[in-house]
Please model this.
Amino acid sequence: MKQPSLKINKQLVLRQLEKSDAESLVKYGNNKKIAVFLSDSFPHPYKVPDARKFIRNMLNEARKKKPRDIVFGIEISGEIVGCIGLHKIKNNHKAELGYWLGEKFWGSGIMTKAVKKISAFAFSKLQLKRIVAYVFLNNKGSKRVLEKSGFELEGMAKKHIKKRNRFLDVYQFARTK
Model:
């Protein structure tokens, strides 16, 4: 599947990651305040080999006719400052939303715009009927992003995510078409 670029405005674009984005991913992603809200698949410290492996995996996935994961880099003024993606895609049905953004850009409305854009893409281009997102209970910023993006709180998923050998509860949000 050819992954399109999703333009939000002049400075903000969601686009396919490139090999040259590894250092930018590390610059913005190597932050304990980000890692604490992500699954263990996002390591901390986040180093260039981690970013290269992630980009390589996402590029390989993008080449598939029916990818299971579609991840966009969040580009601001030519620099990748975060990622947003649809994971565990079940064609014509559902996917799981995941995202992170460099701390410098928190509270700016960027992630709300990105979530709205990728949701529209999921419903129109992928013909999905449901997008689900899981948020750690103490991640108030992400909870607010989802609420502003049309997602509804469905409840709490008990012991849903394993992080550092602990099972944690999360809020489950969803948006349907």
Notes: The first helix runs from residue 22 to 29.
